[in-house]
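Worked problem 6 (solution included).
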Amino acid sequence: EAGLKYFLLGALSSGMLLYGASFIYGYTGSTNFSEIALALSGGASAGLVVGMVFLLAGLAFKISAAPFHMWTPDVYEGAPTPVTALFAIAPKVAAMALILNVTYGAFGSITFQWGQVIMALAVVSMIVGALGAIMQTNIKRMMAYSSIAHMGYALCGLAAGTAEGATGVMVYMTTYIIMGAGSFAIILLMRRDGDPVEKLSDLTGLSSTHPLLAAGLMIVMFSMAGIPPLAGFFGKWYVFLAAVNAGLVPLAVIGVLTSVVGAFYYLRIIRLMYF
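Solution. The predicted structure is:
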């Protein structure tokens, strides 16, 4: 089921990406980023904006930004944990770098138009990710919704459309790699009766049976929740600061509020392990 869902939605996202690219080519006469940027220096037509929206929607599938996140929880749960770890880190970092390149490179002169799209993706991703993770009982499904929220936070910096915002995204994605790799490494190391740990309830009392693993997971969870002085705090600080400096204060406020909600499910794991 997970494989089929990934295949079908992946094909749909590729179709949207190509449809958007064809619109952009039709209205600018080029597929080269620098030539597209030159063609847009006088402003964008309605048709080109439509193409840009389709292109960004296709790329949003790749980073599992809501509302294009439908495949993520099922694929994370259905795949073997090492594959899930790869899904959670490598494609997201690569796709986010691609989105940065497309928005700041090809569409650099129409920041307002793509900024609106990115802002909408960021808000929906943060809310869906934070609220969706609360209800999960499976570790990998929880990490899936967590990753959706993290992509929303990264997009806050991108929505700023400034050099500071781009720096914030890169800092955030660097911390995301560390946190993602750390959490999945610990999940891979954990076993209960010889079987891989899948349920959150399997973490009960981990601090007494495997104190080092519990301590490592606690540090990673605190970092993901954005607790200072850990790396996750500084990642969020940079993206929210870029959003505030660009005048996107409501976006930063939504980010902070959803971070508070997100802290609940990270702290729940710590409570299970230690209390």
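Discussion: The beta strands are 191-192, 195-196.
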